[in-house]
């Protein structure tokens, strides 16, 4: 069965890139059309999706040698797993009891303009009380939970390219 999934890794990297474009498009849709403002962890997840997608795009355009496929696969999987870690933290914050949720911080734009970069990065990666709100669900899972699933799928797709490339 898995033999039927063996394509040129370049095609799979391109599909991974298109998946990342889709995820970023959905985030833009929810923000711009539905009016859901992203919290700091949501923005961090978007950055991780963009970085993973950029890695996949470069791999697809580069058409690397077998050694290059392995390197791109490991970099793509690492970026996706970093995003998965942020998503997992976000899901964890959403499941905290109300008295354990971190305090809400000023809006991210204010923090960017008035605080040092280290404080801004810490805020973006640690999350705030805003991150505990569940504004959207599908099949009982929140947006960060679906993003966690997507990151795990992207990491799996990336690692599978090492196996996929051995047959060529």
From TrEMBL:
Parts of the chain that traverse the membrane: 12-31, 43-61, 73-92, 143-163
Residues in compartment: Periplasmic: 30-47
GO CC terms in record: plasma membrane
Keywords carried by this UniProt record: Cell inner membrane, Cell membrane, Chaperone, Disulfide bond, Electron transport, Membrane, Oxidoreductase, Redox-active center, Transmembrane, Transmembrane helix, Transport
Topology class, membrane: Multi-pass membrane protein
Sequence ranges on the Cytoplasmic membrane side: 1-12, 65-70, 165-168
Location (main, coarse): membrane
GO-annotated molecular function: electron transfer activity; protein-disulfide reductase activity
Swiss-Prot/TrEMBL GO biological process terms: protein folding
One Pfam family it belongs to: DsbB
Subcellular location(s) per record: Cell inner membrane; Cell membrane
Disulfide bonding pattern of the chain: 39-42
Family: Belongs to the DsbB family.
Function of the protein: Required for disulfide bond formation in some periplasmic proteins. Acts by oxidizing the DsbA protein.
Name recorded for this polypeptide: Disulfide bond formation protein B
Organism: Methylovulum psychrotolerans
Annotated gene: dsbB
